[in-house]
Amino acid sequence: MVSAALFYFVEQIMIKKPSARLLAACFAAFSMVAVAEEAVLDAVVITADRPGEAPGTAQINKRTLSARRTDTSDTARLLEDMPGVSSYGAGGISSLPVVHGLADDRLRTTVDGMDLMTACPNHMNPALSFIDPSKVASVEVYAGITPVSVGGDSIGSTIQVNSAPPKFAKLDEGLLVEGELGLFHRSNGNANGRNGRIMIAGEKLNFSYSESESASDNYWAAENFKKTGIWKNRSAGRTVAEREVGATEYQGSVNRELSLALQPFRNHIVALSVSEQRLDYEGFPNQRMDMVYSASDDPANPFQFNLKKDRPSNVNRLANVRYNGQFDWGGIEARLFHQNLHHHMDMLPERYGTMILGMMMPMMMPMDTVATTDGGLFKASIDLSDSDILRVGYDFQNYRLDDWWPPIDNGGMGPNTFWNIRDGKRDRAYLFAEWEAQWSPAWMTLLGIRGGTVKSDTGPADGYNASYSDDVAFNARDRYRKDNHLDWTALARYAPDATQTFEAGVARKTRSPNLYERYPWSYNSMAALMNNFVGDGNGYIGNPDLKPEIAHTFSASGDWHDADKEKWNFKATGYLTYVQDFIDARRCTNSMNPQCTVANATTTNSYVKLQYVNQAARLYGFDLSGKVELGRIESIGSFSLGGMASFVRGENRTTGDNLYHMMPLNLKLALIHRLGGWINTIEAQMVEEKDRVSHVRNEMVTPDYSLVNVRTSYEWKHARLDVALENVLNKFYLLPLGGAYVGQGNAMTIAGVPWGMNVPGKARSLNVALNLRF
Amino acid sequence: MNKTLMVTALLAAFAAAPMAQASTATYNITTTWFEPDTQPRDSIFIGSFTYDDVTHSVTNLQGSLSESMTGNPLSSYDYGMTWIPLTYQLQTWHDDALGGTLAAVFAKNTTATFYGGTWTPQDGVDVGGIFDGYTIKNWQTAYDNSIQNAYALIFVPDSLTPAYNLENPLTLSWNESAGTGSLGLASTAYGDCAPGGMMGPVCMTATSEHVYGSVGTMSGYPISQTIAAVPEPESYAMFLAGLGLMGTIARRRKATT
Q1: pTM for this one?
Q2: Of A356, A469, A606, the CB nearest to B130
Q3: What chain B residue is nearest to A597 in terms of C-alpha separation?
Q4: pLDDT tens digit sequence for B58-96
Q5: Which site among B32, B34, B35, B37 would you substitute to test the A interface, given the most A Cβ atoms closer than 10 Å to its Cβ?
Q6: What angle do CA A722, A723, A727 make, to 5 degrees?
């Protein structure tokens, strides 16, 4: 049975079109998992829920994190080894996680407990871009029903990414000193990076400092993928080759963190950390701008903008104070944080421009954003009895945003500053209560309720000149909005014996529109193109009248495993979400505003202008995951097989259209060999064609594909070496969630880059990482 | 009396004859370049020229070019756009392959428009629409001191005759996405380096990708052109005088009868 399944596995890898057999392969693999009886080996990559953990969660174990870090400097991509999780492509370190078809602000993403905010009309700086993968010690995803104690202002899952908690020396252990140094190189894109960490801890005090750096050139696809025409030969810098994926480079990404933790008494920890993430520049192949700094050198010539690729274009500073205390009656968690984010965009010279006098003369369009976020949490967990826990709490977040575009001439893009969002505010505050009851060893329930408000507002807008006249109507209207949220969750877990666990739950969750959904006011094409955080190449216009999204979700899962959860397990999860007032998009018509053409309403083969609108949506799908220990051969080692598959379907129930960026059916299988500290993995990924696309956005179809990756790692007491060969067969493929390719050409105009190109995936890459510990 | 009527009729006929048969006539022209990024405003050249339909020569071309980034897209009529006078016809040539004459009219008495003193649509594409006189440092000052030229390049088909008039203009169209229509119209272009046409140091332009390899700097491209003969004033006067005289005589004859 095992060999038959393996044969099928290899066949699936080799066949060109896996679409018809993908599901069959998936079930073949899992049926194999279910019947396997050989027992021996260690755990596999993905760990499922653990008894005593919050229900509905999945974690990535440390070993998986180490291996994944070899392949990516993008923290969001670390999550792709979890069932139901994928990511929207963006810049090299700024992907946006997607869980069960919901992404970005629809998820609640926290980093070390902080609800960090993006500050960019393209969401170039999402929460997970602020933590380097080398700092990530744990990832927890509440993929199904999210308990109210960790949710709020989101309709999808909650993702919690955390760095290592502070350690303290044991009594009479003396001073505890730990350090870590890491290096990596990836051949495709010539990506390099290093990281270091030092920690000194006594019984009551912990001090740590960490720093990491990474950089990458543009990566390469396995085949040519660009349309013909001289649109792509307009670089003001070096020529971008046919297989080179423009605007995927990034340089000067540096993360630093200084942490101090105090443990005055046992079970009471106060921790303070300050950190900074800065980045010189980062390209975005599916956006019309890049993260790059530009400024005038001469006050007398304020329009004389020059690119400053050696100056940080994005600086995010964080201060995080937290307290965790354990008492006889329960525990308290309290946190306050402050985020200060300065962000600058313009266009990398390789996109468009001219070489004049041997100098680069790129098209310029500076855009600046400054935002601050203050947030906090107070949560008490009260042990009502041996089997009942009450969690009550309060959390808040206050967000301020200015987004302006300096003038660059006295003509079409001047002489005034374009205010996209001025004095933007978004404040939220919540109270929640949650009761977890262990009725019996088999039965557990979780009931929670969360209520609060989200208030948003913005000041007057302004255009470059009188030609941007939509500001008159926008400024004349009332822009303040207050949304009341009421969320609740009911979840039950039933574990009739040691080999099976079942969970089911329902939830109502609410999310208010973000500032970039409500307040971008200009129907001008160029301005609309700049307001796009989904990477589809289109232009977006805000809608102050948007209502909050309200999602009703039902999710159920079954987990079958051996009694010790060591030898095998199989987990299946199904879900159905109905979203009232889902924020989708509609075509801007000529009757709405004369700046939208008549053709904009119906065109099927060009980029378009869209406006956010509330509609009804339904999402449903399933995740399967499992593992099996295949056996051990003396002196050769042990073998195990793991796999997961995900399917999601998203429908707009108002228009009958498909929702945007739904990951097609996909399957991952991994065969793992282990001998002492040596681990070898061969993994296959098969992805179905993405043909259910959002027609309103003219989203493009992506063909099916199969990839093979091989990895090997060896771990010594003080070192670990990881070597991976990604895309071994050098297959060409288009990323289903990679977005539209607009990384070259005159991207600031709606037709300057031909419609119809997707962002491709990477060609073969040899990745090496070395980590030393002491 | 019959002789008088005959002479008068001949006078009117001679007066009318140039309108129908003359080799040289004056024409009004409107050339429109579609501007997807500044809708509903397009870049439009409205002007006139003299055309000899025997030699296919275009002279006295002049008119005005609208700047579609100016004005107010929400207002009416011409949206209050700035119009640049173009009065210097400095380039004219006949293209046998296209079957027509191309003529360029400039705002200044020089063709220097784009970087390097160039002007052709292909030059504009090749230099990314950078204005003539651009300097790496202090381009803003360089721009203030530059020529700030603009031009429109129009196409006159060999088939043009005075028979194309206001009621029956000669109309050309071009479908950029399909690449169909008049290639002569597709060869037209404009370049606007006047202040209202600037995006930083980049001038606004329109070109067809099918002819020049790229659309304009704001994705503009040609879509339509209409040409209609303008009856000359003196011809009108003679014609009307003859007609008036005929009417008077006819009325007298009727009264006499």
Answers
A1: 0.89
A2: A356
A3: B39
A4: 999 999 999 999 999 998 888 999 999 999 999 999 999
A5: B37
A6: 135
